[in-house]
Amino acid sequence: MVIRDLSFSETSPATPQQFSVPTDLPLAPVTDRFIALILDFLILSPIVSFIIASVLRNLKTVLLLNSESDEAVVIWTLFLIAMVIVSCFLQAVFLYFWQATPGQKFMQLKVLTYPQTLPTDKKLSFAQSFVRPFGWWIGVLMLGMPFLEILGHPLRRAFHERASDTIVISHKQGAADFPLAIESRYISSTMWIFYGFMFVMGMALMAKTYRTALNDGLSGGKAVSQVSCQNIPVDQYKDQKRLDLALALYFANEVDEACVLKEAQKAVWTLDGEEKSLGQLAMAVISENEKEASAYQSKVCQESAKSEACAISNYLLSKEKDRGNLLRRAGLGLVSSRILLLKNSIDRKDYTSAVGLIKDLEVETPLRTYLNKNLVRAVWALNEKAVNKGKFRSPASVDEKGILSAFKKRYNIE
Fold it and tell me: Which of 41, 122, 246, 399 is a Cys-bridge partner for 118, taking CB atoms 3.0 to 4.6 Å apart?
């Protein structure tokens, strides 16, 4: 919907003479404003990119590894916020001192205060200069639809111009680009449809969010499975291997209890010996009832005291700092053992061992997201450690140098 200024005495779009507005204003033509926008993008975008180059560098590194990681989300958010703030500041400086951006200056356009209660040569206030580009970004977030008002508003004023009390004029001779009545009617109808669509989509999103929150509340606020058991390749993982991977994914917080429960029950009822003990362990891990969990836990080592499942059970019950040795002595044949040892290495800041475990686990495709995230974490920690050692003239170890070199070579990072 085209939102009219309160100073207008008429509401139906027609000729400029039907409005109580100054028709002698040399309104900037739409084509000139569009060309000025293109020029501003070409001139200002390299400057903005240079200022936030450090954020871009980290963003490239994370996106090479995993575009869906938590680190990538944070860096994307920081990048977008920095881009908006820097671009708004640059435009505000040009508007405050020259009343035009570089593109507008080239196209002989000028931004004035409207209504014109001040002399036309009076500079915009800094608030006006900043609100105008900030309102422009709001229009971008709304898919650019508010910019259509430049075509239909009687004074070619879009949302960001009305919010900042500004108007764009042209210094060219004979410029007075008022919209036709049909343009105003068409844009008004288009905006009505757009805002109606946005309202419906907003209500649908709110309903979906409410249902999700309600379901999370009913399920105790537990995370929804990110990798379902159905997505574990059937041809690669069967019987104990499938349960082992499901349990490893659970330890990595990549699946919920439902995935592990299905495979654990199958193992408990159909398998024997060490394979059954892994099923007992899985049932103990996911059980919410302490007595039930304790009962399953006691059965794990009864099935096979020398099994790796028993070693995992002892590891989970142990509070010792060197409890990782319990897993190492068992042989680390299970994926779930190596995942637990990887988490233990990260917690102890033994990043060299962590990277070695990550390389060993890379063949397990369903774990790729989790491994990539921890690889980034380990390499960044090692790099920071190497930098700090360099400051004190203490060189990094050969293993640490090798890890950093391999990482940079693998992802083509200078």
Answer: 122
